[in-house]
Specification:
This protein has four helices and 17 strands. It has 225 residues and is α+β, with helices and mostly antiparallel strands. The protein is elongated, with a radius of gyration of 22 Å.
């Protein structure tokens, strides 16, 4: 009987996470240093890779918290990339993933989120673009376009590229890239089978904006392999 009991205890000890307790770290805890950087939803990455569209991916991922950024012993959460909060938040760590608890939502944990190489919050948009916004294409006017998470090259012209993550005042289609020096503030990339349809567009709240239907309106350019 004693031998059977010992065998059962050893088996339980070897079960993954059987006796493991999640580590909870809140603002001000020095151990947060180990977890600094950007934490994101793996399901958002998967949706971006599948849809190749920021707008489509976000419609498939319904979460209150957009991402989590740990820095200087603080846990900062982003709400739809429109507002943020870094007061009194906590993370729960288990097996390299984190769950987050917002200060005013006691006992409610959201996750899991996964780590990224991003240590500068300004690079969050580039991280998401790296999931699907790469490669070179030929346009309908015989220009070579090369896309990268931080830059669009058209012929010899290099244009800094920045994903407009906050959709609160954006047209509801495609992937909006903020650009400078163009007629309108955004190039919006809509996936096509062999490339992209590129539209020039404005803030949705602009009084002079001409509505765009990506299925019917004429693109500014068509890109293909």
């Amino acid at each position: 009987m004693l031998r059977q009991l010992v065998i059962m205890l050893l088996a339980l000890t070897n079960l993954p996470n059987a006796a493991a307790k999640d580590e909870v770290l809140c603002n001000g805890n020095a151990k947060l240093k180990q977890y600094e950087g950007l934490w994101v939803w793996p399901k958002l990455n998967a949706a971006l890779q599948k849809s190749r569209s920021w707008n489509t991916a976000l419609m498939q991922v319904d979460t209150q918290i957009s991402s989590v950024f740990v820095q200087d012993q603080k846990v900062a959460v982003s709400f739809n990339w429109h507002e943020g909060d870094d007061s009194g938040n906590c993370i729960r760590v288990n097996a390299g993933k984190v769950w987050v608890q917002i200060n005013h939502q006691a006992k409610k944990w959201q996750g899991p989120l996964i780590a990224t190489p991003v240590r500068d919050l300004e690079q969050e948009g580039a991280y998401y673009l790296s999931q699907f916004f790469t490669g070179c294409y030929h346009s309908d006017n015989n220009e070579r376009w090369c896309l990268s998470p931080t830059e669009i090259t058209i012929g010899s012209e290099k244009i800094p590229a920045k994903l407009q993550m906050d959709r609160s005042e954006m047209p509801d289609y495609g992937t909006p890239i903020a650009v400078e020096g163009k007629n309108l503030p955004f190039l919006i990339f809509v996936p096509r089978k062999q490339g992209w349809a590129v539209f020039q567009d404005d803030w949705a709240s602009s009084e002079t904006r001409v509505p765009v239907d990506p299925d019917k309106s004429k693109p500014w350019h068509i890109l293909s392999k």
